[in-house]
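Trying the structure run again after the queue cleared.
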Amino acid sequence: MRITKKGSVIQLAFLPALFPVNCYLVEEEDGLTLIDAALPYSGKAILRAVGRLGKPIGRIVLTHAHEDHIGALDALKKELPDARVFISARDARLLAGDRSLEKNEPQTPVKGGVPKRNSVTTRPDVLLNDGDRIGSLLAVSAPGHTPGSMAFFDTRDRSLVAGDAFQTRGGVAVSGVMKPWFPFPALATWDKDSALASARRLLDLRPTLLAVGHGRMLEAPESAMRQAIAEAEDAWGGRSITKRGGGEHA
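Done. Tokens:
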């Protein structure tokens, strides 16, 4: 595991040289917020990193319900029974293994590693909606990679933990844009139109730091995000912008 700290955000990267899977610790005055739970075997390493920081995890926040973002959730909840678990109201259904779509959603099958029905025993304590607050973090709806993907924007320093709405491994890309050196987020993306609209919304936040599920953190990311959006528009004919306006295993 590789640990990288930038401001109040600490990246814990598993398999960083091969198949990077990241989760994040965000420092708050009352302790730590863990964003995502990485891989099934990651729990002990996460707890060791927390032990070195000397602060408790009070909250476990999930960007979406793919298995490489919720892998150690049950193990962590067992060791941290008082930690509250947060996920979007929409992806709570995926967490329970329900892949069904709502009538108003694009009727493209949900892709990627969704847990089997009731295989995850942890139940969320809080179902998030767009605009909710978790400590210093603002919950930002960012559907596309999954129907209920969320990003989390730190209002103190404008750092953005974006889940798989973007990737930086293999090149900065909007979820759904294929990068040959790391194609997995694209292969697991549910709806490209939604993903592109969400990417533009996240750019509008003008983040100072972009932290994603796969790849290194990126400081001053606006230019790279804008270029990635332009690449997606070119690849997909700009359809999200023209149809919906601008302003989600791997």
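Residues 203 and 225 are 7 Å apart (CA to CA). Worth checking whether this holds up in the mutant runs.
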